[in-house]
Write a structure and sequence with these properties.
Layout (H helix, E strand, L loop, with lengths): L7 H6 L10 E7 L2 E3 L2 E2 L14 H4 L10 E4 L3 E7 L20 E7 L13 E7 L1 E2 L11 E2 H7 L3 E5 L7 E11 L10 E12 L45 E2 L9 H4 L43 H4 L1
Parallel strand pairs: 4-12, 7-13
Antiparallel strand pairs: 1-2, 1-5, 3-12, 5-10, 6-7, 6-11, 8-9, 11-12
Bound molecules: copper (II) ion.
EC number: 1.14.99.56
Subcellular location: Secreted
Organism: Xylaria multiplex
Length: 307
């Protein structure tokens, strides 16, 4: 599939060959506004070597200049598509029966605009993994995080824990596609790191794990045949941090997952800002500093250039 070029920056970032079905996490929505603080992957190809540094923030990515400011406790929304900003809900966010868990991590860093994710300490803040489908006969028919992404046009809500200390963080969204994972090394990881500055008065500094380090190719959630009946699924990595959140696979789309669309009004969500923002296009949210603009982002994504 040929990708449409949107902006110079995005076009350059996605200029390599695309493969249908594969996908990338792209924009981040904060209080209903799109924000650009993603270290966009250079292609939509997966990372499969869990011992590679690429498992942290995808292959070949570099820090970007923007940081997204977000209050602790805010529910943000990550967005995945096969092609850059292909928001057509008729195209699956991640296609090709790429079923598997969606998990999100954070790592406290001194400067999100320069931090190396492969040396960071990651704690898991969110998981939407697997649930049995009583009317299905195998794992393919069961409920998965990636199916929720597809059902919600690529959007998934993730709460930033309320109690974490303010400061810079990397936020890492990960989808793991398990369609070929019955063979070693064939689990497909799709991840993007976002650069955040978290505000608030929390004090928690959750213990983390290393990526690479926390995953092994033989983990039961990575080396697994989902084409057979499944009675359980153990997602890779540590347990979700106590103030993090989980979502039951197969649940309904909610809040931004249902309402965040280009040109729509922002929906009020937890955290500050958002409630009375402009109702025109999201590009108006690029302006910061007035009372009606969101507090969520320092750089809004350039929808006007695209649409
Ligand atoms: Cu694939």
């Amino acid at each position: 599939m040929k990708s449409t070029l949107y902006t110079t920056a995005v076009a350059v970032a996605f200029s390599v060959t695309k493969v249908a079905a594969h996908a990338t996490f792209q924009d981040l929505w904060i209080n209903g506004y799109g924000a650009s603080c993603a270290r966009l992957p250079l292609s939509n190809s997966p990372v499969q070597d869990v011992t590679s540094k690429d498992i942290a923030c995808n292959a070949g990515t570099s820090p970007v200049s923007g940081k997204c400011s977000v209050a602790a406790g805010t529910t943000v929304t990550v967005e995945m598509h096969q092609q850059p900003r292909d928001r057509s809900c008729s195209n699956e966010a991640i296609g090709g029966d790429h079923h598997g868990p969606v998990q999100v991590y954070m790592a406290s860093v001194s400067d999100a605009a320069s931090a190396d994710g492969s040396t960071a300490s990651w704690f898991k803040i969110f998981a939407d993994t697997w649930a049995s489908n009583p009317s299905g006969s195998n794992g393919d028919a069961d409920f998965w995080g990636t199916k929720d992404l597809n059902a919600c046009c690529g959007l998934m809500n993730v709460k930033i824990p309320s109690d974490i200390a303010p400061g810079d963080y990397l936020l890492r969204a990960e989808a793991l596609a398990l369609h070929s994972a019955g063979s070693p090394g064939q689990g497909q990881f799709y991840m993007t790191c976002y650069q955040l500055t978290v505000t608030g008065s929390g004090t928690a500094k959750p213990a983390g794990v290393a990526l690479p380090g926390a995953y092994a190719a033989s983990d039961p959630g990575i080396l697994v045949n989902i084409h057979a009946p499944m009675s359980t699924y153990i997602a890779p990595g540590p347990t979700v941090y106590s103030s993090g959140s989980t979502r039951s696979a197969g649940g309904a789309c909610a809040a931004c997952e249902s309402t965040c669309a280009v040109g729509s009004s922002p929906t009020t969500s937890a955290g500050s800002g958002g409630g009375s923002g402009p109702s025109t296009t999201l590009s108006t949210a690029t302006t910061t500093g007035s009372g009606s603009t969101p507090t969520g982002c320092t750089v809004a994504f350039p929808e006007a250039a695209k649409l």
